[in-house]
Amino acid sequence: MLFIPSTASVAAVVRRLREFGAPAEPLTTSVLTDGTTSAHLRILVTTEAAARGLDLPDVSHVFILGVPTSSAAYLHMAGRTARMGRPGVAITLLPDEGNSIARMHTMAQLIPLHWTPFSHVE
């Protein structure tokens, strides 16, 4: 699952991922009810607000683009993985500009979050 900022276009991100050959789809009710098994690999693209209240038990990885708006928003997005005792991974990709890294440090202190920062990657 890929969480993008609410200011970004889900359709544009899906289109761009598909251009690179990634099996991306917007997260919609029809995608969730199409009967596809969890073995079918796909990237579900959504915003934090659009995924609220959904129970997605088979999400193995969550990618969050940018700094979440709050620690509660971060927990909500990261919590879409590792449901019902299953293993899961949440990866947050931050821009290397402004105070985004400092904001993530602060967020990590507010919630029980184990994280490993990596240096700038191009």
From TrEMBL:
Pfam families given in the database record: Helicase_C (PF00271)
Protein name in the entry: RNA helicase
EC code(s) of this entry: 3.6.4.13
Position of the signal peptide: none
InterPro entries registered for this protein in UniProt: DEAD_box_RNA_helicases, Helicase_C-like, P-loop_NTPase
SUPFAM superfamilies membership: P-loop containing nucleoside triphosphate hydrolases
Domain of life: Eukaryota
A single GO molecular function term of this UniProt record: ATP binding
Residue stretches making up the Helicase C-terminal domain: 1-122
The entry's keywords: ATP-binding, Helicase, Hydrolase, Nucleotide-binding
Key word Nucleotide-binding present: yes
